[in-house]
Amino acid sequence: MTTQNLRSMKRHQSGTIAAVTASGELGRRIRDMGLVPGTTITIQGRAPLKDPVALRVMGFTLTLRNNEADYIQVEVDN
Amino acid sequence: MDASGSQAALNQGPFAQTTIALAGNPNCGKTTLFNALTGARQHVGNYPGVTVEKKTGSYTLENHRLHLVDLPGTYSLTAYSLEEVVARDFIVKERPALVVNIVDATNLERNLYLTLQFMEMGVPVCMALNMMDVAAAKGIEIDVARLANLLGIAIVPTVARRGEGKESLMQAALDAVRQAGADGRRPLEITYGPDIDPVLKQMSAHIAAHRFLTADHRPEWVALKFLENDEQLRCQGEMADPDVVAELDAMMAPLARHLKQTLDTYPEAVIADYRYGYIRSLMAKGVLRQTADHSRLEISDRLDQVLAHRFVGPLLMLAVIWGLYQFTFAVSETPVALLEGVFGWLGSLVDGHLADGLLKSLLLSGIIDGVGGVLGFVPLILFMFLGIAFLEDSGYLARVAFMLDRVFRIFGLHGSSVMAFIVSGGIAGGCAVPGVMASRTLKSPKERLATLLTVPFMNCGAKLPVFALLVGAFFAAHQALMMFLITLVSWAGALLVARLLRSTVISGPPTPFVMELPPYRWPTFRGLAIHTWERTWQYIRKAGTVILAISVVLWAIMTFPRLPAEVAQDYAHQRAAITDSQASDMAATLAQVDFHEAEAALRHSLAGRMGTALEGLSRWAGFDWRTNIALVGGFAAKEVVISTLGTAYSLGEVDPEASTSLADRLSRAPGWRPLTAICLILFVMFYSPCFVSVVCIAREAGSWRWGAFSILFNTVFAFGVAVLVYQAGTLLGL
Ligand SMILES: Nc1nc2c(ncn2[C@@H]2O[C@H](COP(=O)(O)OP(=O)(O)O)[C@@H](O)[C@H]2O)c(=O)[nH]1
């Protein structure tokens, strides 16, 4: 188990969110959608220009820009 | 909050009204359920002071008229987005007897996050567990009775798309209203952990003791929102009692410091964690069981592997956008022509039956053209919304935003902006009116405003004849190339101005792109029809009246003041002389006199005087008074530039579709050269949107200030560009 940044995760890679360090509006939006510590996510894919990223969380698909993904640390299963 | 008022209303017999709010996450099926419940008995308006749509309707049950209000779809009840503020304010101020929370059964955990927040507010809640068919297909089993028991609320499974469960839902709602009135509510007790709980309790007690904001809220909720750093409530608190705010701050400060130091986090984050923790504990108590099958989920994913593919995705997207565009403009061609025919017929009727004069001119140019102008857009708007509703309801629009966001973000816009640009004429020949209205699909306020202010720069179908005329007159050898360049220049102008606006008047950080990609779904006919009709009708009703008024004003400034009697007399004498002479080319000569009189009358009118007065200034861009008048006329609709130029050049009213006589005249007119044509093209491309668009901009932006801004800013900008090009070109000897 290693902790890495959501931005650096590869397609189809899964993991559990370890920390969300964003505050303010961005932090709130991220948490509202269920991205809180303990949630498992899977990278579903990236847009044609590599940004934003699409993830699968609790059975739905969510998109985030890379600079927003920077605030999310994930414990990846290898 | 106090529900006894609604109980009293229930007891008042058959005509009593009980207000029930429908709330839920976006895409949970709320609109579908609302339509199934209310059918045609709905009313669409706006929430006071904002552009968020408010739909209300009614449902009759046991002699009770249930008044249903559709709250905007939200994921949460923090006060960040407009939708959230609207939903929250409605519950606080209008005090519905009950919130019917629609929950997507395939997405239980995230949907319950909102449910918890309603329960924290203390408003009575009843749940519609929707999409049960999809959940079953996905192999999701929900123990409804157990969930209802754990949450302490009534839950009714529904399939909104087929109307299943709506009767039991309304019955449960009515029962819940009665119960809420009878024994009060049992607010949900959630723990927010050992750090938050004691502080929350202390703050609640303090708030209750000082009756701080308790007229509208539960003390526990006020405390929670203060811990969540809620701007709106804090503002209200500052106004009510700043001392209590300071005391609450003092209670919170150690907690915030402690959380920052030990866990590097914030109270609001901890609260969210515990809400989700509570939801997970519910799930762990056997509420949710996932049997193996994932088939439907995979269908959406498999579709995305193609539709959102790195190379194939963008190509397909271009094809879809092109298709939407073709569909809108091809299908609306016939009805538009039909409407034009009807108004043309009305016009000829008036023309034939009324004597020449002011009344006739007012009816023809002011009223018939004005109403015709408004209604002429209706088929376009209708089909454009139909196409967009299809893309939106099917889930594809979210993918378009996803794929294009990286590009549009550079200019301070959002991936979803693309639709508005395309419809406005991003592929030449659109229309800014439906384009401005298409910006509604954007949820980010700043990006949305920047989009709707810049889409009028695109080349709408009314500008095209103007460009075609000028290109035909001066660049006949390179028509296709010129038209292509014109399209590129308008895109560049729009995007750069968007960037400019986003770093000046609409500055601010980008709205987060945390967005759901909903599963692909086949839209229902009913949903599409209601969506489309609502928006179209709003346009007709609201824009119609204003546009008619402005149309009459424009007619007036191009008519008054009229030629002095002796000048008109002079033309009459000329005509009499020609008639007397009985020359062979009498008809043509008479027409000549009419055209000269029309030119003189136009020049004498207020618009003409404006044109002449502005000539000193407009010379910098190479425009003479005739061009100026034509541009004033273009405010009515861009193709009017051509007919007005025709009048100003004594050619009579020139038909925009057949303007060769005018092209000939221009190419030989003194003062006209290719550079002048380029400057006029640039000016027409960028200057004030036609007033129909301005009315729509003002409506969509929620303020007439933005309408005025788009007139002034765009005109100044267009003039700046034209002057720059004209002066540079002149220096280079072009
Ligand atoms: N299969 C199924 N589809 C549904 C159900 N309810 C809504 N939908 C579909 O889900 C999509 C989103 O619904 P809509 O009412 O627009 O969601 P809103 O964003 O909450 O207003 C539409 O395509 C609906 O047809 C349901 O119970 N079952």
Summing up helix and strand content along with how strands pair, one would put the structural category of chain A as alpha+beta
Please give the share of residues in helix of chain B.
55-70%
Determine the mean pLDDT of chain B.
87
Largest interface: A-B, 37 and 45 residues
Bound molecules: guanosine-5'-diphosphate
Radius of gyration of chain A: 11 Å
Low-confidence stretches of chain A: none
The helix tally of chain A amounts to 2
In short:
Chain A has 78 residues and is of the alpha+beta class.
Spell out the key features of this protein.
heterodimer, A: SH3 type barrels, 2 helices, B: 734 residues, alpha/beta, Rossmann fold, Helix Hairpins, 3 domains, 7-stranded mixed beta sheet, 10 strands, 66% helix, disordered N terminus, binds guanosine-5'-diphosphate
Describe the structure.
- The complex is a heterodimer of chains A (78) and B (734).
- Chain A is of the alpha+beta class.
- Chain A has one domain: SH3 type barrels (Roll).
- Chain A is built from 2 helices and 6 strands.
- In chain A, strands 1-6-2-3-4-5 form a 6-stranded antiparallel beta sheet.
- The N and C termini of chain A lie close together (7 Å).
- The mean pLDDT of chain A is 91.
- Chain B is of the alpha/beta class.
- Chain B folds into 3 domains: 180 residues, 3-Layer(aba) Sandwich (Rossmann fold), CATH 3.40.50; 98 residues, Helix Hairpins (Orthogonal Bundle), CATH 1.10.287.1770; 373 residues, no CATH class.
- Helix content of chain B is 66%, strand content 7%.
- Chain B is built from 34 helices and 10 strands.
- A 7-stranded mixed beta sheet of chain B has the order 2-3-4-1-5-6-8, sandwiched between helices.
- The longest helix of chain B has 33 residues.
- The chains are: A alpha+beta (78), B alpha/beta (734).
- Guanosine-5'-diphosphate binds next to helix 2 and helix 5 of chain B.
